[in-house]
Amino acid sequence: MKLRILLLVIVLALVAGVVYRIQTQQAGDARKEGGSRVLSVKTVAVAVRDFPRVIDLPGTLEAAQQVAVVAQVSGTVLKQHVQEGDAVRAGQLLFSLDARPAQARIAQSQATLTGARAETAEAEKKLERLAPLMQSGYISRQEFDEAQVALEAARARAGTARAEVESARLDVEYAQIRAPIAGRVGRIGIRAGSLVQAGGEPLTTLIAPGALDVRASVAQQDWPQLAAARAQGKVTAEVFHDVDRTVQAQGELVFVDSQIDAATGAVPIKVRLKASPPALLSGQGVRVRLLLGVLPDARVVPEAALQHAQEGAYVYVVRDGKAVIQPVELIRSLDGEQMVEGDLRAGEPVLIEIPQRLKAGNTVTIESARR
């Protein structure tokens, strides 16, 4: 009895295997058409929509208002009154220089001025005495003229001494280096005891709180489209990082240079941000995208759909169940999307993954349609 059951099970297994093989062969025959195997492909639909016209540029952030603090007189730093990162108000004392040389000049110039004033007073009195004598003929005209020249010389020496006093007083005032604007103190390049030169290296930089600017340069070949966009109205911009491409801030083009930079062959520009998020700092490198408008009714496909050959660019389009090569011309690229021109209709499925066995004219079945 057990032997019969075992034989029955074996026979049923053999029959099931034969049936499965026949069904598999029939399914394979059904998926063949014209001698080519049916391939499963992934596609997306061709989109017809507005495509942004942009110019992407590398840029550098800077404070909309920042001042390099430079000494106006030479001298030794006696005291540093602030530290890096301090918030200061306009007029606040930052550094004190040694003002003793200027104070000594004040004393010397005042002494010279006192002597020049005395000489002037004496020359005026002498001229007053000689005036009636010259009219009466008791002295010559030359003697009177010499007295006038002496008076003018004394007055000139007094004026020079007066100017030297004022200059020395200014130097004493300049020895007290104060903040020209309210802001935050940047890196300090000197310390107490350092010798600084007038008009030399900045002692520090004050960065005013508020908006940030992005400085960049537009290449000569991109300048015509930027000029055309400016003629239509204001040009807005987006600022983002190279890594994550997430927009960090919005801005507006506020400055375009009137000439091309001879060193770079580009046109310098400046974009002012509407807000200053904490993730953006002065001196930081960013990407700035100028938004110039849109191109209407553009045919858009993903970057993965675009193929390249010696004859030019093309895409695979599914038409009547077959993969057809459609030549296209790449017009613009932006964030993984391609604007192309060619015989493409809105909604047509284009392949985004190309099987190795795929050839033009193969019958395909769409695995998944997106978009």
Distance between the termini: 64 Å
Backbone shape: elongated
Q: Can you give the mean pLDDT? A: 85
Helix content: 25-40%
Low-confidence stretches: 26-35
Order of helices and strands: HEEEEEEEEHHEEEEEHEEEEEEEEEE
The CATH architecture of the largest domain: Beta Barrel
- Spatially, the strands of the biggest sheet line up as 4-13-16-15-14-17
Task: Give a summary of the structure in a few sentences.
The chain has four helices and 23 strands.
Furnish the topology, listing elements before pairings.
Elements: H1 2-30, E1 32-33, E2 36-37, E3 39-45, E4 47-63, E5 66-69, E6 75-80, E7 87-88, E8 93-97, H2 100-136, H3 141-174, E9 176-178, E10 183-185, E11 195-196, E12 204-207, E13 212-219, H4 223-232, E14 236-240, E15 247-256, E16 266-273, E17 285-302, E18 307-309, E19 312-319, E20 322-334, E21 337-342, E22 349-351, E23 364-370
Parallel strand pairs: 3-23
Antiparallel strand pairs: 1-2, 3-22, 4-13, 4-17, 5-12, 6-8, 6-11, 7-10, 8-9, 10-12, 13-16, 14-15, 14-17, 15-16, 17-21, 18-19, 19-20, 20-21
